[in-house]
C-alpha cells in the first residue's frame, strides 16, 4: 500500500520571504543557512528563485504550522552558484551527527551501476568532508580589530575596483573560496580587509549569502600574526551589531556558521576563537556535469 503523497505549494516570492523566516527562526542555529538565504538582498528584485513548502500559503499563524513540514529554496539565477536548500524539523539522532552518513550516500551516488563503488564511476567527480561550525555572533560583538597594529579597513566592499575577472587583483581576491563565486556576488557581500603600511591588502574576509563566514584569507608572508582571527572577529562582530544592515545583512539570526574542510587546523582555530563548535559533518561532491 502506497504511503501518503507529499505535495509542495509554491507561494509568491514576496509572500515566502515574509512567511518562511518566522517559521525557521525557532530552529536556529540549525536553520541559519536557509534562514539567511531567504532574507538575502540578492533575491530582490524577484529573480529566478523557487520558494516552496509542504503547507499551503494560506496556512494559519506560525504556531499552527504542521508539526512535520519541509521548506525548499532553489536559486538557478547565478549559473555556477545554483543551489537547492531543504529544511524540515524532523528529529535527528545525536548519535548520527558526527557519523557523516553523507559519506555513505556519496559512495552510493558515485558507484558504478551493479559494480564496485569507485569515484571514477562518475567523470570528474571529487569528494571532500567538511565540518560545519556554528557560533553566536555576540561572542565577537565587542572584539577588537586585527593584530600587529595593522590598519583595519572600514570599507565594507573590498571587491570595489578589483578589476575585471581576469585581472591579477581579482584572482588574488578570488582565492579566498574554493566554491565558485561571481564578482557580482562578492561585491554585494559584507567584507573587511587589512592593509599593510604601503596600502596593499594583506588579509580579508567576507560574509556569504547564507550569513556565514564564507571566505577568510591572509597572504602567506603575513600569516602567524593573528590576522585571520582579527579579521574574523571584527567581521562577525560587525555582523552581530547590525553594522551591515545597509547592505541587507542585519545579523538578525544572532548566529554565524562556516563550513571548514576537515583537517584545516588554521580555520578550525579561528572558529574556535569565535566561540563556535562543530555541530555536524557533511560530504561535498563536485561533478563535472558536462562529462556525464
Automatic annotation (TrEMBL):
<feature type="domain" description="GCN5-related N-acetyltransferase Rv2170-like">
    <location>
        <begin position="193"/>
        <end position="238"/>
    </location>
</feature>
<dbReference type="GO" id="GO:0016747">
    <property type="term" value="F:acyltransferase activity, transferring groups other than amino-acyl groups"/>
</dbReference>
<dbReference type="InterPro" id="IPR053225">
    <property type="entry name" value="Acyl-CoA_N-acyltransferase"/>
</dbReference>
<dbReference type="Pfam" id="PF08445">
    <property type="entry name" value="FR47"/>
</dbReference>
<dbReference type="InterPro" id="IPR013653">
    <property type="entry name" value="GCN5-like_dom"/>
</dbReference>
<protein>
    <submittedName>
        <fullName>Putative acetyltransferase</fullName>
    </submittedName>
</protein>
<dbReference type="InterPro" id="IPR016181">
    <property type="entry name" value="Acyl_CoA_acyltransferase"/>
</dbReference>
<keyword id="KW-0808">Transferase</keyword>
